[in-house]
Amino acid sequence: MFSLGIRKTFVITAIAAVFLLANAWMLVSWLGDHGIIEWAGWFKGRFLTGTAITVVAVMLILYVKPRASVKSFISQCPVCDSKIFGRKNYCPDCGSKL
Ligand SMILES: [Zn+2]
After folding, report:
1. Which of 31, 44, 62, 71 has the highest Cβ tally under 10 A?
2. Residue 67 CA, ligand 1 centroid: distance in Å
3. How far is the CA of 72 from the centre of ligand 1 (A)?
4. By the 8 A CB rule, do 97 and 80 touch?
5. What is the 3-state secondary structure (H, E, C) of 6-62?
């Protein structure tokens, strides 16, 4: 179902997340020493107001194409009109090239 690249990315992300969690206190102290937490608090108070978050959320909802992945996953054979699941080069029912 998932392609090899997606599975590799998932495994690498999981390993990186575990490493980050294991070093969470070191990471927090590093962020505090470099003033990044204070900067993030200032940024949140200055720019991430309720109105800005609402506008960003509405834009994300409006720009997403609904059912785009479902359409590419399920297609229809042009010869026998049977439903084809996944990306295949040949129809499993009649064998015609897609
Ligand atoms: Zn067919």
Report:
1. 31
2. 23
3. 17
4. no
5. HHHHHHHHHHHHHHHHHCHHHHHHHHHHCCHHHHHHHHHHHCCCHHHHHHHHHHHHH
